[in-house]
Amino acid sequence: MDQQEILNSIALTRISYFSLAQMLELYRRLGSATEIMEHRKDIREVVPDAAPRLIEAFKDMSDPLHRAEVELQWDMDHQVTPICLNDDRYPQRLKDCPDAPLILFYKGTANLNQAKVIDIVGTRQCTLYGQDLIRRFCSDLRSYCPHVLIVSGLAYGVDINAHRQALQNNFETVAVLAHGLDDLYPRQHQQTADEMVKNGGLLTEFPIATNADKKNFVRRNRIVAGISDATILVESAAKGGGLITCGIAQSYGRDVFAFPGAVDAEYSKGCNNLIRDNGAALISNAEDFVKAMGWEDDKHLEEAKSEGIERQLFPDLSPEEQKVVNTLQKTNDLQINILTVQTGIPISKLTALMFSLEMKGVVKTFAGGMYHLLK
């Protein structure tokens, strides 16, 4: 990624709190942070109703650019990778969200665009019941789907249990933080965070010297939801951050699941209410979840591969269908908006092509609108 694009993305992030939605609109219309900087004197020609405070912020970008240089140097010194919105490494599921960050700061080894990504969230007051649910879920999920990226927030309770059980069951796991990567909250989770950097990672939209303020935890929940195919609520009181994440996931069109609990259990009220109000599908184990997501056939596919069974070349494909197949062979598991860009086929026509390919058994649709080439 071009260093100037990274610097400009960081600088724009510094001023985007005036209007993240309008900054994102600018980005999508112009295509890059660098293009925005080049048009900063005539922003209203691009977005006529741009907020006055945003226009004012563009008048002097010297301080945001200086801070961006400090940030980038720190990142390079500490093996942190800045990932811009137009970078292929940027989480594609998140990129489609209406409030996606312009840049993410990442320290880790996991691919953020894996075929299956879930987040596990819930109360910080995780009970023994909740801990047992997480332990059994991760252990059983391993036998059904051994390649799942598990996301959470590294907080006390459900979050840290989810990360630790993921590591114990050899899943990669990523924590989305509510502060810069120059700090860690809570400090008591440092050892787990260190393990995650080697088998997963730490991710944030916040630059260094950003405190773990309460508002940042709410803000980071959209990244937890946006990066995932599905959100799983383990335990929650009647109100809580896990419920906020579920609400955001619903607004993104993602799948939401919840474990039920006793009707009088304080930290099952949120789950029970969400299920009652049709805000989440009820699950009691990993098998329920895998079936609901349509992932149950993957085990058989893995067994076939291990036995050396290879699918023959797909017959009877039209030139455009073959073009789609060729694209997915290069980079599997793509959403339709990415496919239309990479193939040059209009999305209206591509939708029909994908349906045809699915009927022919060439591709399979995963949650989140991801198309997987069966090979």
Question: How would you explain this protein's 3D organization?
Answer:
It is a single chain. The chain has 375 residues and is an alpha/beta fold. Helix content is 48%, strand content 13%. It has 18 helices and twelve strands. It has helices spanning 3-15, 20-30, 33-38, 43-46, 52-57, 62-77, 92-95, 128-144, 158-168, 190-198, 214-226, 241-251, 269-276, 286-293, 298-306, 319-330, 336-343, 347-359, and strands at residues 81-84, 103-108, 117-121, 149-152, 173-176, 200-204, 230-233, 255-258, 281-282, 334-335, 363-366, 370-373. The strands form two sheets. A nine-stranded mixed β-sheet has the order 1-2-6-5-4-3-7-8-9, with helices on both faces. The chain has a three-stranded antiparallel β-sheet with strand order 10-12-11. α1 crosses α6 (62-77) and α11 packs across α12 (241-251). Residues 304-314 have low confidence and may be disordered.
Write the layout of secondary structure elements.
Blueprint: H1 3-15, H2 20-30, H3 33-38, H4 43-46, H5 52-57, H6 62-77, E1 81-84, H7 92-95, E2 103-108, E3 117-121, H8 128-144, E4 149-152, H9 158-168, E5 173-176, H10 190-198, E6 200-204, H11 214-226, E7 230-233, H12 241-251, E8 255-258, H13 269-276, E9 281-282, H14 286-293, H15 298-306, H16 319-330, E10 334-335, H17 336-343, H18 347-359, E11 363-366, E12 370-373
Parallel strand pairs: 3-4, 3-7, 4-5, 5-6, 7-8, 8-9
Antiparallel strand pairs: 1-2, 2-6, 10-12, 11-12
Helix pairs in contact: 1-6, 8-9, 11-12
